[in-house]
Design goal:
Layout (H helix, E strand, L loop, with lengths): L1 H18 L12 E2 L6 E5 L5 E3 L23 E3 L7 E3 L28 E5 L3 E8 L4 E13 L2 E12 L8 E13 L5 E15 L7 H5 L17 E16 L16 E20 L14 E20 L6 E16 L2 E18 L2 E13 L5 E10 L5 E11 L3 H4 E3 L4 E3 L5 E11 L5 E10 L1 E4 L5 E4 L3 E14 L3 E12 L12 E13 L4 E12 L6 E3 L4 E3 L11 E10 L2 E8 L11 E3 L2 E2 L4 E11 L1
Antiparallel strand pairs: 1-3, 2-3, 2-6, 4-5, 7-8, 7-36, 8-9, 9-10, 10-11, 11-12, 12-13, 13-14, 14-15, 15-16, 16-17, 17-18, 18-19, 19-22, 20-21, 22-23, 23-26, 24-25, 26-27, 27-28, 28-29, 29-32, 30-31, 32-33, 33-36, 34-35
Length: 623
Amino acid sequence: MFKNHSLGFLFFLVAILSNSLFGQKKDPQIITSSEPRFSHQYSYLHENKYHFIDTLFDNLKEYHKWNNANSDLFEFSPIGSMGTALNPLSLNQSSNLWTYYNFKAYDSYFLKQNQIKYYNVKSPLTQANYWMGYDVGQKFQIYHSQNITKDWNFLIDYARLNDLGFYTNNLSKQVSFLATSSYKSPNSRYKAYFNFINQNLHVEENGGIAADSVFEQNLQSIRSLLLVNLQLDNRSMRNRELFFNHEFKFNRSVKDSLDSTKSSNSLWIGHDFTFSRRSDTYRGLVNSGYYTNYFNGTDSYLDSSFYTSYTNSLYLKTILESLNDFELKLGAKNLIYSYGTDSYLTNGTALGIFGQLYGRIGRFQIRSNLDYILSGSLRESLDFSSSGSLRVFKSAKATLSYKLNSRYPDFYYQANYSDNFIWNNDLRKINSNELRLDLFWNKENGLRISNTTIGNFTYYDEQINPKQHRALLNLVKLELYQNFKFWDFLHFDNRLLYQVVDKAGEDVLPLPKILTRNSVYFEFSLFKKALKCLVGGELNYFSKYNSPSYMPAIGDFAVKNEGEIGNYPFVDVFANFKISSAVVFFKFEHVNQGLNSYSYYASHHYPFPDRIFRVGISWRFFN
């Protein structure tokens, strides 16, 4: 199996290295601009700045994104192969007032609107990524962006995952398609943004290994021969989303006579439209003993849920650049939704208002956001956040922020009719407050302290029923980011999270007190600096705690009090190389397997992956 991986990868590598010499020759610094003045750049929706594409190769920021979520999963613990459920190691709850359905333990694998980049490139940009999976499998991604005209861009992004995993009934497959387009009229008075998302994730649900003692004593090293709880169960999730935004500026642009890049004050009217369709289907055969309830007389079950929504927003926005950058946005939003499970359907509407404020005076910045639902079944829901930041020195920055959120639990908590679980609850709003202080002495290094209180915290109990914790829950978090660099070639990167839940809340929100990731690696160049290298090792660790248990039928974690996991160091060694625009990584994962014990679990009955050698490559073309 590994031979097939190696031959395919070596062929791909030779092709890449032979062509990468024609790529970008110089690594630019990470910079931003209010206008698209770089050769290749991108921006996010409603963000008035462009980011130059980062091609630096002096840290592990991109290395930590080599997973199916394309993001740093420091605060999650994957319970199997790529694409399987993620066990949250810190508080993870939704605050969006306009969406009440997500994919629970799989939600990180699905795109969000605030993650989508809109490009502006002077020449076509193409990037291909390959990740080797576990045992047999891989993920492949390719995207292409090109400007049709100076101010009209499109992007096509396709990704495919196929990972068999180590254990029986452990396959995960995902197909993702993203198309985006952005347009600005020649006189800059009209802007439009469009994207379409279509994602399908299929996972086999094995319920974990049936006998932990056989695994912990290493009585069977061939993992596919270990008995699992569910032999034929599987889950299919689908997300389709269509988004369109356009804005029109009432006044014409007038350039500053002293600064040709500076625009005058402006007033905009804008409109958003979003269509979303999500579904989750769980199939399997009746397995006596695993599920205690079964409400159907057949020998198989098929549980499904779906959510459809239409959202429209209309707003006014003013930008006053003459006041050292000031932006105010006010609007109204309408939501029409439909949610259903087996034998259950509900429809509803919601009408609300929203506002955004941004201001900058010298070294001080302020940001505020407000969403409030006025009418409908979700009325009187509120989401408010505000932050003020002060740049003390050239690189040091202090930010104080506050968040207030009051929203109903997701629809799945409120009503579910399936073959294995049935409930119809009258749940109260979840009320949360967060006060946070960020102290960063440079862009990468800093300290983050937060205190969060939650009323009516919602969770699944031992019987897999949604419950609300009536007492006020309190969570204190302290997170440290500190990267050291010695003699311009030795790196020592550290990320440490310490969190404490009050005694009354420990039973409903069990979290490890300590999470840490420590990396030691060397940075050097070979062949007259043509080949850049990052070589070293990394340790991931979380302290022992009473982890929630994964329940396949709901696709989420429940507080079942099955005991403690954790207190196990997970060590990887790696070698990352870059030649021109091609980046290759070699990773020997979990090198310390068996040196201490075989009690290494991501969640109850779901061990971490065994020792494995993995390869990945990213190849970017600036044509």
